[in-house]
Write a structure and sequence with these properties.
CATH architecture of the largest domain: 2-Layer Sandwich
Number of domains: 2
Largest sheet: 7 strands, antiparallel
Structural class: alpha+beta
Distance between the termini: 39 Å
Helix content: 40-55%
Number of strands: 7
CATH class of the largest domain: Alpha Beta
CATH superfamily of the largest domain: MucB/RseB, C-terminal domain
CATH topology of the largest domain: Phosphorylase Kinase, domain 1
Length: 246
């Protein structure tokens, strides 16, 4: 993807208005291109500033929207940026209110979900790579034999799903298997923790999806233990990953 194409679609990318393929293409371009990445960071900084103002002292989110916009948006910014700021502020406000209504704002993100999310972000940045690159499920299961306790569960196949690779990571000092999948090109990281492990004793399955920076995470109990997954896909696709291991 060329810079002009990425920048032309930057506003709908921020607004989550693009299809999965173009979203993935722009994400990869932003990782590889410092110039476009800086432009994205400038707009993302504006969004964070607005969200922080909306979460300011006293919790008066709705009353601070206009003040946040007037403080954050400068006349020197490009004309389309005001639209981005308005939408970003609205999304931040709705997301914050929905989180408080559904969880009371107190439910912590499971430790395993946080671990998978952090590893996933490092993978996207090129800091981590699969030890095994393969699209063959049998090769993945063979790779983990003798390297981790227990067995990896099955994974979705067909209809846009594709295996990419596998590696060993650690959860509470115990080696566990991490698999990278793709759904229509969008990468998703999946970790299985055996039921008999020390790490599993620290886990409690959650009944909802967790919103983190860069995507959504999920944690469920499976036939063999626990499975956590993270990626920039909708909840239904994460549920498919869990269902494959049941």
């Amino acid at each position: 993807m060329k810079c002009r194409d990425a920048l032309r679609h930057l506003s709908p990318y921020i607004d989550s208005e693009l299809d999965a393929t173009r979203t993935y293409d722009i994400s990869r371009h932003l990782i590889a291109c410092p110039t476009c990445s800086k432009r994205f960071e400038e707009e993302e900084t504006l969004e964070r500033a607005i969200a922080e103002r909306l979460r300011g002292p006293g919790g008066d989110e709705s009353g601070m929207l206009e003040r946040a916009l007037s403080d954050a948006v400068s006349p020197r910014r490009r004309p389309g940026l005001l639209r981005v700021a308005v939408i970003a502020a609205g999304v931040a406000l709705l997301g914050l209110l929905a989180y408080r209504l559904t969880t009371g704002g107190t439910e912590p993100i499971p430790e395993l979900v946080e671990m998978v999310a952090k590893d996933h972000q490092r993978y996207l940045l090129g800091e981590l790579r699969p030890e095994l690159l393969t699209m063959d499920p049998a090769a993945v299961h063979s790779f983990f034999q003798g390297r981790v306790d227990g067995e990896m569960g099955a994974f979705p196949s067909g209809d846009g799903w594709q295996l990419e690779g596998a590696r060993v990571c650690r959860f509470h000092e115990q080696p566990v298997g991490l698999v990278t999948l793709r759904y229509h090109g969008i990468p998703i990281s999946v970790v299985d923790v055996p039921a008999a492990s020390d790490g599993a004793a620290r886990l409690t399955a959650a009944d909802r999806c967790f919103e983190l920076e860069g995507g959504r995470g999920i944690l469920r109990r499976t036939r063999a233990g626990f499975r956590a997954a993270f990626g920039a896909v909708e909840m239904a696709k994460l549920e498919e990953i869990i269902a494959a291991a049941l």
